[in-house]
Amino acid sequence: MSGNRFFVPLDVFNQAETFFPPAISKQITSVLRLKSGQMVTILDNNGHCRSVELLDIDSKQVTGQPGEISPATGEPKVNLTLCVALSQREKFEWILQKGCELGVRHFIPVVTSRSLVQDTRGREEKMDRWNKILQEASEQCGRGLIPSINNPQKLDDFLKQNQGRRGYILHEKVKGSYFAASLQNSLISGEKDWLLLVGPEGGFSEDEVNLAEQAGLQPVSLGPRILRMETAVLAACAVFMAAAGELGSMDL
Predict the structure, then answer these.
(1) Is there a single domain that holds both residue 40 and residue 99?
(2) Residues 6+ positions from 128 with CB-CB distance below 8 Å
(3) Of 16, 37, 113, 157, which is least packed with CB atoms within 10 Å of its CB?
(4) Rg of the chain (C-alpha set)
(5) Which residues form the domain of 56?
(6) Contact 39, 11 (CB under 8 A)
(7) Are 114 and 178 found together in one domain?
(8) Co-location of 50 and 98 in the same domain
């Protein structure tokens, strides 16, 4: 499949001739400056893709001739849900982008007692922006599906609603229980759905860690050093995907 990829609505994906939506048409002509005869890939966000030969190039309406439908690639064999504390806008959006690149399937923003951001107002505007970031990241990194993201909620509400989930909570005060070592044993079970809970800049309170344990999450550490929040998220996602075989063969 070609390098330029676009998630399109299902009715556009299934057409005998592809009529690109206005925003994508503008991107093709004004940003990417693609020409008639070049190939792009369209995806339906349901696990399918098609190569499309561009025909008429116009900033208001680009058309193309689609090829056969085939399975979309780029999705991990495991479903990782990243439950992460809300933070400053730039930092949180960076986490969304990099988490998407590493293969996170679901994002759940939560408010904890030490979160820098406690206000969850303006959800609709935030959700639109977050979904756009995830779509663009998915197109650029070769994902076959766009990760989903939930509305922000309080951590204790989330834990009450998700009793018995298989997963982990990162906690810097845990001694002798390292994430990488724990994964070696856990992933042998063949479980596909996992939850990773990462706290804010100030870490979790002891009450929050206790609630997470009661919900079934295992407290683990990333090692003896104290990591910044965004570093911990990136490192944990990479360790998980490596252990699951999604970053190539690797002995942890």
Answers:
(1) no
(2) none
(3) 16
(4) 20
(5) 5-71
(6) no
(7) yes
(8) no
Q: Is residue 97 part of a domain?
A: yes
- The Cα–Cα gap between 230 and 232 comes to 5
Query: What is the C-alpha separation between 13 and 50, in angstroms, rounded?
Result: 8
Of the candidates 151, 20, 17, 35, which has an alpha carbon nearest to the alpha carbon of residue 7?
A: 20
Reading the block at residue 64, the tokens are 């193309």
**Chain segment 46-62, per-residue pLDDT in tens:** 999 999 999 999 888 99
CB 63 within 8 A of CB 69: no
Torsion of CA 195, 196, 197, 203, to 10 degrees: 160
pLDDT tens by residue, 134-164:
999 999 999 999 999 999 999 999 999 989 8
Which stretches of the chain are assigned E, i.e. beta strand? 5-7, 18-19, 39-43, 48-54, 63-66, 70-71, 79-85, 106-111, 148-149, 153-154, 167-170, 193-198, 217-220
What is the total count of domains within the chain?
2
Domain end among 22, 40, 71? 71
